[in-house]
Design a protein that fits this description.
The structure holds two protein chains of two kinds.
Chain A lengths: L1 E8 L3 E7 L5 E8 L4 H25 L7 H33 L9 H22 L11 H20 L3 H16 L7 H15 L8 H8 L4 E8 L16 H12 L5 E5 L4 E6 L5 E6 L8 H10 L4 H9 L12 H13 L4 H23 L6 E4 L6 H15 L4 E2 L7 H14 L9
Helix pairs in contact in A: 1-2, 1-7, 2-3, 2-5, 2-6, 3-4, 4-5, 6-7, 8-14, 9-11, 10-12, 10-13, 12-13
Chain B lengths: L16 H18 L1 H4 L2 E5 L6 H6 L2 E4 L1 H10 L3 H10 L8 H11 L15 E4 L5 H14 L3 E3 L12 H23 L5 H23 L12 H11 L6 H20 L4 E2 L2 E2 L5 E6 L7 H9 L3 E6 L19 H11 L6 H14 L4 E7 L3 H4 L2 H12 L3 E6 L9 H25 L1
Parallel strand pairs in B: 1-2, 1-3, 3-4, 7-8, 7-9, 9-10
Antiparallel strand pairs in B: 5-6
The chains are: A alpha/beta, B alpha/beta.
Chain lengths: 441, 435
């Protein structure tokens, strides 16, 4: 089967979208960009391929509309089992890597002890792993580093104590290994993992009649051929893509937003370090754009910094700001000043939610200024990027759009973080059909 | 069919005749300047827009252009340190960076591009007032040098035309203030026939300059009218207008351009002859000088060529027909000052950019907005919208600075430029598909 890949290499996350010949999205994948775009690109692409398999399974079951409950349960079980297999595979890699780090003067006295302790830690990790991927189990992140990291540290502390080893030795090997493991995509074949996952699910008795297996195997037999790939986003130039395989993120976001909402005329994208205001025509072709330059004040990273300052998770900021009844008036979008202003206001006794609401408003004010420079807001208006998931930012945006431009349809897709990658995939699809510049003939 | 691009041979010496000539001219000029006190020559500092070089030469004064010095400092990567020096002395971050580079250079010993100290000016001649910062700049220099300062007021072309009143007003100032002061400073009596002689020479070089700038109408264009254009305007905007040197330079240059047209060649870039011409642009606004080559490379690597620019008109809008006229020596100086690009109203600038897009068959307009130059930047977004509306061609906006390296963010500029080029491409194929 021919597939077309769009990869958006953002400063914070890397996204991939896999599309089929008929412009249907087969799969989406996301990973943190790390400092290694090459890996991020491969991981995101692999994640999209995994997601695509599930689309193919659903197609085989004829359950794309989500009607068959049994099938849904079976596929959910399969996905959990697959994630578990993936996790176990990465654990193996992490263990091997950790053991290789046990060398040199530092470990001279108790290398064997440390190795044995590592064996114990990883054995316990493997034992508890299935529970982490059980139905209803919640994981605080989907990234291996986050899931494995916190459990390793806990277990290593216990094991070190029991073995009478200094904890910092176990910490040391982990610190040296995790980055290496994270910076290489899981090496095993995807289909092997799917087959193992299928066995696991069958053993557990999900999909009882065994009939479920056949369509899955059929879908696994479909080869996903990478027909054309287009890269976009901040990191695109660092990749070994040739020029024909690179599109600017402005064009990709414009086209991606057009595909999600064909009536889109104005797009606002707030990403990690860019805020873009884009005007598109009825075909999704970019008419005009403006973006922040010289300074990334008021972009997504600003919120990340504020979350760190407040010792909160990024996703907790929006809900807290929503509680505000009296937003503080904050004008500076300079990230460094915002930190100072935040501490100042907290010291003066202002409420956290009011300060946060003020900070959200400051971001959106800056975004509105960028949009107005690009030509204002026309109906329909599509908001994309990581910040579009933040309800407080959305609330401020709606308010300011109404004040400045009147009633306008505002579109926010739950998958809006994939907008650039989606545009990229469509450019890839069109390019493969000889329309190099991605315009419908 | 477009002729294929042939790589220039190293033996192609003629190709560089104009550049070698210009280099010699500049070196001689700076040597004249830095040895002024030994030779007893007197120095006049003045600006590029409204530069009255012919008049200055009538008094045997050597022309010193602080703007050009700042550009030289930018190109030589010295302006950053000069600007910091000026800021330490109390000049705000938002002030024109030409000014700060100049003042910083002064504070650090006023060493010119030839490594020798530039002389203190004997007179400051402010002959263009369209840029308010110029006034303040010379106010600062007057404080420093305690020398006579001449202030020739040039009315702004707010209504889009030069009226007889404006010319009379300026000629009166020339007669009653500018010329008498220059006579006093220099000790040389004004000779109007000498002025006429220089003006005639100016006109001759101006004819060739216009020919060269308008060669951008060819496909492919044999010149880059922005990055290459900076070199082409050097002599005529600087201290050489009215000299035989300028006549020779532009003749050489014209011959080179003609050869490239005949061979179907594009411009020569710092990395050699330009490849295929993919995008033809009109550019508004000054360039960035601290990353000049890197900036230019972002264009030629993508096959983008600037066929016309407004910046190459800041020292005169010769392509609109103006020539220095020896028969009306003082009036022509007034008209010259009035006509420079930055003295033109916003509607005039819009007309000009639209004309360029149409006449040079450009793909669109690119505005390089300068952070520290309000005089240029005010109204640029409105200009952009209007030009887009009238020509139907896409426009884009980037932001850099003249000589402050802190305001050149290469990754962002490149990102925007690439987006813009792809946008042009997309629009083109969309138009092709619709046709």
């Amino acid at each position: 089967m021919k597939t077309f890949v769009g990869i958006d290499l953002g400063s914070t996350t890397t996204k991939a979208v896999l599309m089929d010949e008929d412009e249907n999205i087969l799969g989406r994948g996301i990973t943190n960009s790390r400092s290694n775009y090459d890996t991020a690109c491969r991981v995101a692409q692999q994640e999209a391929a995994v997601d695509a398999r599930f689309t193919l399974f659903r197609r085989e079951f004829g359950a794309e509309d989500g009607s068959a409950k049994e099938v849904q349960e079976f596929l959910a079980g399969l996905e959990r089992a697959f994630r578990l297999e993936q996790f176990l595979e990465q654990l193996d890699d992490l263990e091997e890597t950790c053991i290789r780090q046990v060398r040199g003067e530092r470990f001279e006295k108790n290398a064997d002890g440390v190795k044995a302790a590592l064996g114990e830690v990883f054995s316990r990790l493997r034992t508890e792993a299935p529970a982490m991927f059980a139905p209803g189990a919640s994981r605080k992140s989907d990234f291996f580093r986050d899931i494995a990291g916190s459990r390793y540290l806990n277990l290593a502390e216990d094991v070190a104590r029991e073995a009478g080893l200094p904890y910092d030795l176990l910490l040391n090997v982990y610190d040296k290994s995790i980055i290496a493991v994270e910076n290489r995509p899981p090496k095993g074949e995807l289909s092997d993992k799917f087959h193992r996952a299928l066995e696991r699910v069958t053993e557990q008795g999900i999909g009882l009649d065994g009939e479920m297996e056949k369509p899955v195997k059929r879908a696994l037999g479909i080869e996903l051929e990478e027909t054309y790939l287009v890269g976009t986003g901040y990191g695109r130039v660092t990749l070994p893509f040739s020029k024909e395989h690179i599109r600017s993120e402005i064009l990709c976001h414009g086209l991606g937003a057009h595909m999600m909402y064909p009536e889109t005329r104005t797009v606002l994208d707030i990403g990690g370090q860019d805020t873009k205001g884009i005007q598109v025509d009825a075909q999704g072709i970019v008419e005009n754009f403006q973006m922040n330059d010289r300074c990334a004040a008021g972009c997504g990273r600003y919120l990340g910094y504020i979350a760190d300052e407040m010792n909160m998770g990024l996703h907790e900021l929006g809900p807290m700001a929503m509680k505000s009844e009296k937003p503080a008036r904050i004008n500076s979008t300079c990230t460094v000043f915002a930190g100072a202003e935040l501490r100042d206001r907290l010291a003066l006794g202002e409420k956290r939610e009011d300060i946060l609401a003020g900070l959200h408003r400051a971001i959106i004010l800056r975004a509105i200024s960028i949009i107005s420079r690009s030509g204002g807001v026309s109906d329909q208006f599509t908001f994309t990027g990581g910040v579009a998931k933040n309800e407080a930012a959305v609330r401020e945006l709606k308010k300011l759009v109404l004040e400045n431009y009147g009633e306008v349809t505002i579109n926010i897709d739950p998958d809006s973080i994939y907008t650039g990658a989606l545009g990229g995939a469509e450019f890839a699809r069109r390019a493969a059909f000889g329309r190099m510049e991605g315009v419908d003939a | 069919m477009r002729p294929s691009i042939v790589k220039a041979q190293p033996a192609d010496v003629l190709k560089d005749a104009s550049m070698i000539k210009q280099k010699e001219m500049m070196a001689n000029h700076y040597n004249r300047l830095t040895s002024a006190h030994e030779t007893g020559a007197k120095v006049a500092s003045t600006f590029v827009p409204g530069n009255l070089n012919e008049l200055i030469m009538c008094f045997d004064l050597v022309n010193n252009l602080p703007e050009v010095n700042a550009i030289q400092s930018g190109l030589r990567k010295q302006s950053g340190a000069y600007i910091m020096e000026a800021e330490r002395a109390g000049h705000s971050e938002d002030v024109c960076t030409y000014v700060k580079s100049d003042i910083g250079m002064m504070m650090k010993g006023n060493i010119g591009p030839n490594g020798k100290k530039l002389p203190d000016p004997d007179v400051l001649l402010l002959s263009y007032t369209g840029c308010f910062t110029f006034l303040k700049w010379f106010e600062l220099l007057r404080e420093q040098y305690k020398c006579p300062t001449i202030f020739l007021q040039t009315p702004y072309m707010a209504d889009g035309k030069v009226t007889p009143n404006m010319i009379q007003y300026m000629v009166k100032q020339l007669k009653e203030d500018v010329i008498p002061t220059l006579e006093k400073v220099s000790g040389v009596k004004f000779d109007i026939d000498r002025l006429r002689e220089y003006l005639a020479k100016s006109a001759k070089a101006e004819d060739d300059l216009v020919y060269i700038l308008q060669s951008g109408k060819n496909k492919p264009s044999p010149i880059d009218a922005y990055f290459g254009g900076i070199y082409y305007i050097g002599p005529i905007f600087g201290a050489f207008r009215g000299t035989d040197d300028a006549i020779d330079y532009y003749r050489f240059l014209r011959e080179e351009v003609d050869q490239r047209i005949a061979a179907g060649l594009g411009p020569v870039t710092p990395d050699g002859p330009m490849g295929e011409e993919k995008y033809r642009l009109v550019v508004e606004g000054p360039p960035n000088y601290t990353h000049f080559r890197q900036f230019w490379k972002m264009f030629y690597d993508e096959g983008a060529i600037v066929v016309a620019s407004s910046y190459t008109k800041v020292g005169g809008t010769y392509d609109y027909g103006f020539r220095h006229d020896p028969d009306r020596p003082l009036e022509t100086l007034a008209e010259y000052c009035l006509g420079v690009y930055t003295n033109r109203s916003l509607p005039m600038r819009i007309d000009m950019l639209c004309d360029y897009i149409n006449e040079y068959e450009a793909d669109g307009l690119l505005i390089n907005s300068i952070k520290s130059c309000n005089s240029f930047s005010a109204g640029q977004l409105l200009i952009m919208r209007e030009v887009e509306k009238r020509t139907g061609k896409p426009a884009a906006f980037i932001e850099t600075d003249l000589v402050d390296p802190r305001y050149f963010s290469a990754a962002n500029v490149k990102n925007r430029l690439e987006s813009y080029f792809q946008m042009i491409e997309q629009k083109r194929s969309s138009a092709g598909a619709a046709a």
